[in-house]
Write a structure and sequence with these properties.
The protein contains 12 helices and 12 strands. It has 450 residues and is an alpha/beta fold. The protein folds into 2 domains: 291 residues, Alkaline Phosphatase, subunit A (3-Layer(aba) Sandwich); 141 residues, no CATH class. Strands 1, 2, 3, 4, 5, 6, 7 and 8 form an 8-stranded mixed sheet that branches. Helix 2 packs parallel to helix 7.
Length: 450
C-alpha cells in the first residue's frame, strides 16, 4: 500500500503535539464502536488520517514509551523490562539519543504536559532534561514547539468511579459490546462501561486542547497526533501481545499539510511515529534509527511490525510477535507460565478476573472465555486476523498454515538477531527496582517449583 497523500504545506516548520492516552484500544466511534460517544476524536479523524493498524512495540507503558522516545525497539536499547534501570544509573547506548535532542537542534521548544499529564516513565536516565518547560507558551516568539501530553484518565485508578459520577451521560452497562472472550455478567459489563466512561472523558480533554489551538490561532500549522501508549487494561489487553494489548489508535490531523478524510490499513509501528515527527521537523534521520517515516517523500511501507513482552513488575515472561498484512505469529518462550501467572498489580486492578474464574468453576463459560485462564500457554500461536480478528482460533498446528507459520517464525528470528534483542540475555539484578527484587525472586522460585 502506498503512503497516504500530503497536501501542499506551509514552509514554516509545524508545531507538533503528541497526545498519548493511556491504556486504550481502538475503542472510539471512528473505529466503529457504537457503545460510547467520542465526537471530538471522531472529528479529528475526519479532519485528518485514521490508521487502523498501528501497533506499539510493547504492551506495557515504560518499555513502550522508552521505544517511542528514542525511535528504537526497547529490546535493542536495553529498556525491555518494565520500570527497569531506576536505581543503576543506566544510560542509552551510543549513539542513541532521545528524539527531543534532535528536535531542539532543529529549533523546537519541547514542552511536557501543557496543562495535562506529564508522565515520561522511561527505562533509562539522561544527564540533561528531556523538555524545556511544562507549556508551549514559554517558547520564544515564532519558535515552533513539540509537546508531549498525557491523558492519564484512561489509566486504571481511583478516579474511574469519580469520572463516571461526573459524566453527563455515563455509559449504560446494558449497551456495551463485550469481546467474545469475556463472559456476559453484570460486573464485566459494568467494568467495561467504566472503561468507556474514561474514553469519553479523554475525548472531552482532547476537545479542550483543540479549542486552545483555535483560540491561539495556531491550529492550521499544528500537527496533532493522538495515540494510545499501549492496549486497554482488560483481559488479554495490557501486558500481552494480543491485538488488545498492542494495537492502538493512531489519528493525525494537520490542516496545512495533510488531506482530510483518509483511512489507512497501512502497518505502522509506534517507533515510526517517532521517526515521522523528526522528519516533519526537518531533521536528517540518524542512520541507527529503527523507526521509519510512513508519510511524505521519505516514507517507508512496512510489510511486518514486531512487538515484545518481558518482565512486568515482579513477573518474568518472554513473548515475541510479528504481525503481517494478514497473519500474526506469537512465540511464547515461557509457556509454562500462564497468562495470569500471579502478578500483584493485575490481580489488584482487574476486577473481571475473580468473576471469570468463578464462572469457569461453575461451568458457565465457553472454551474461548476459559483460554486466557489456562495454567499454561501454547509454545506458538498463529492467527488469521482477517478471518479471526479476536484471535480465538490458534492455527499454529494446522498443516494448511504450516508455510505461513514458518515464514513468520523466520521473520521473527531474523528480527531478533538484526535488532540485537536484549531479551535473549538474563537481566542484571541491579537493573530491577529495589522494591521488586524480593518479589522477583519469590515469583521465580514459584515458577521453578510449579
Amino acid at each position: 500500500m502506498l503512503p497516504l497523500a500530503l497536501s501542499s504545506c506551509n514552509q514554516q516548520k509545524p508545531n507538533i503535539i503528541w497526545l498519548m492516552a493511556e491504556d486504550i484500544g481502538n475503542d472510539l466511534g471512528c473505529y466503529g464502536r457504537t457503545d460510547l460517544q467520542t465526537p471530538v476524536l471522531d472529528q479529528l479523524a475526519a479532519d485528518g488520517i485514521q490508521y487502523n493498524r498501528a501497533y506499539c512495540t510493547n504492551p506495557i507503558c515504560s518499555p513502550s514509551r522508552s521505544a517511542m522516545m528514542t525511535g528504537m525497539y526497547q529490546t535493542t536499547i536495553g529498556a525491555e523490562h518494565h520500570r527497569s534501570h531506576r536505581d543503576d544509573g543506566f544510560h542509552l547506548p551510543g549513539p542513541v539519543k532521545p528524539i527531543t535532542t534532535y528536535l531542539r537542534q532543529a529549533g523546537y521548544f519541547c514542552a511536557l504536559g501543557c496543562g495535562f499529564g506529564k508522565k515520561t516513565d522511561l527505562n533509562f536516565q539522561v544527564d540533561t532534561p528531556l523538555f524545556d518547560g511544562n507549556d508551549w507558551s514559554k517558547r520564544k516568539p515564532g519558535q515552533p514547539f513539540f509537546a508531549q501530553i498525557q491523558l492519564a484518565v484512561t489509566h486504571r485508578g481511583k478516579w474511574w468511579e469519580k469520572t463516571r459520577t461526573e459524566s453527563p451521560h455515563p455509559v449504560n452497562p446494558d449497551s456495551v459490546i463485550l469481546p467474545p472472550y469475556i463472559p456476559d455478567h453484570p460486573l464485566t459489563r459494568y467494568d467495561w462501561a467504566l472503561y468507556l466512561d474514561q474514553l469519553e472523558k479523554a475525548d472531552s480533554q482532547t476537545g479542550e486542547l483543540l479549542q486552545r489551538l483555535d483560540d491561539e490561532g495556531i491550529a492550521n500549522n499544528t500537527i496533532v497526533i493522538f495515540i494510545g501508549d499501549n492496549g486497554r487494561c482488560h483481559v488479554r489487553g495490557k501486558g500481552f501481545l494480543y491485538e488488545d494489548g498492542i494495537k492502538v489508535p493512531l489519528i493525525i490531523r494537520w490542516p496545512d499539510g495533510i488531506k482530510k478524510g483518509q483511512v489507512s490499513e497501512q502497518l505502522v509501528s509506534m517507533i515510526d511515529v517517532s521517526a515521522q515527527i523528526l522528519d516533519w521537523a526537518g531533521v536528517t534521520l540518524p542512520d541507527y534509527l529503527q523507526g521509519k517515516p510512513f508519510m511524505g517523500a521519505n516514507a517507508v511501507t512496512r510489510n511486518f511490525v514486531f512487538a515484545a513482552r518481558d518482565r512486568w513488575d515482579e513477573v518474568y515472561d518472554k513473548i515475541r510477535t510479528v504481525i503481517g498484512t494478514r497473519y500474526k505469529y506469537i512465540r511464547n518462550d515461557m509457556p509454562e507460565r500462564g497468562w495470569t501467572f500471579q502478578q500483584d498489580y493485575v490481580e489488584r486492578v482487574r476486577p473481571m478476573y475473580p468473576v471469570i474464574r468463578k464462572l469457569i468453576a461453575e461451568g458457565k463459560t465457553t472454551p474461548e472465555q476459559e483460554w486466557f485462564f489456562l495454567p499454561q500457554k501454547p509454545k506458538e500461536e498463529l492467527y488469521d486476523l482477517q478471518e479471526d480478528p479476536w484471535e480465538l482460533h490458534n492455527l499454529a498446528d494446522d498443516p494448511e498454515h504450516r508455510f505461513v507459520k514458518e515464514n513468520l517464525k523466520k521473520k521473527l528470528e531474523t528480527w531478533e538477531v538484526e535488532t540485537n534483542d536484549q531479551g535473549r540475555y538474563p537481566e542484571k539484578e541491579s537493573a530491577i527496582p529495589k522494591r521488586w527484587r524480593k518479589k522477583v525472586r519469590e515469583r521465580e522460585a514459584q515458577a521453578t517449583n510449579s
